[in-house]
TrEMBL record:
EC number: 2.7.2.3
Domain of life, source organism: Bacteria
Any one cellular-component term (Gene Ontology): cytosol
Catalysed reaction, written as an equation: (2R)-3-phosphoglycerate + ATP = (2R)-3-phospho-glyceroyl phosphate + ADP
Subunit composition and interactions: Monomer.
Keyword annotations: ATP-binding, Cytoplasm, Glycolysis, Kinase, Nucleotide-binding, Transferase
Protein name: Phosphoglycerate kinase
Amino acid sequence: MTFKTLDDIAPASRTVLVRADLNVPVQDGQVTDATRLVRLVPTLKELASKGAKVVVLSHFGRPKNGPDEKNSLRQVVPALSDALGAPVAFAGDCIGKPAQDAIRALEKGQVLVLENLRFHAGEEKNDPAFAADLAKLGDIYVNDAFSAAHRAHASTEALARLLPAAAGRLMQAELVALSKALGQPQRPVAAVVGGAKISTKLDLLLNLVGKVDILALGGGMANTFLYAQGVDVGASLAEKDMADQARAILAKAEAGGCQILLPKDGAVAKQFKAHAPSRIAAPGDIAADEMILDAGPATVAYYGEKLATAKTVVWNGPMGAFEIEPFDAATNAVAKIVADLTKAGTVLSVAGGGDTVAALEHAGVADAFSYISTAGGAFLEWLEGKELPGVKALEE
Ligand code: 3PG
Ligand code: MG
């Protein structure tokens, strides 16, 4: 890996465009886990203290039809300002006059956040014209969004080729730490993969089963696999049109000697809300109007036993709907098992992803993991051995 860092640029009196990942979990307008913001602060502070105008670019959520309040980055600004310990300005668009005016008004050493890049279709299309509109705004490009580096989008890929480019301190730290921890992982390697982003992660699992020895599935991901095996999952979150792909992954795992672990039981409820009446049910015993909201105790015991045989554990995605009690139980329990194995020195553990880090914080065990990455999908793709477009663009 050879790329420039903040040591190689001269940011004084320059406008520096920092591609950050402000895609943090937000509930009712409040940031519920500020890890990504806190980890971004060293780069912002360093550039500000060197006299740059610091302009932060980021996506937030997955808006598909232009601007909407729910996906506005405005709601993240107060939490970023808290993390930074300084005021943070905001512009209501990431290109054009609103952005230009806000940058003109910015003093050296100040930080500005521009509105969600994904409000423009050109971002996800890696559109050169959109990248050029972004490039016009600044003199230097710094990419500190390791967690978005698996996306070849205008702000992570095309823009890096239009301005002098460098990696930020977080990008640098993530790449160094992951290479050290997982460059030559000790076997057996177990991956715990859960969460709700099923379709985008399925592709990744197909490669991952070729790299890891154990794959423990949870959340909507597990439901999709149960469904693919002919289990009636009722009203559970599952991507039923992905069943063929799930079966292909199961077949590849079986042929290659990777054990895929699926839940043996789950907490099922009729409503997706905190303290909804629930019961523990086995796969095959789920009514049409019930949803699996968490893994059950038999699953926790089974996963715990298997994870104890691993030397390396990587984790992305919660076991259930950990944001609503009591459906955080399995995520908390499995997190505690991995934390205890790490403390005992038998396992090296790396976890990543916005929701995952929030879940581990919630379980009170984040500090016990060997390394916490701010990245979810990007860290799994890195683990697959894929070249990340956002990193590659910095190297060129
Ligand atoms: C993430 O939260 O994993 C990153 O911010 C990337 O988001 P995306 O999966 O919507 O591209
Ligand atoms: Mg992700």
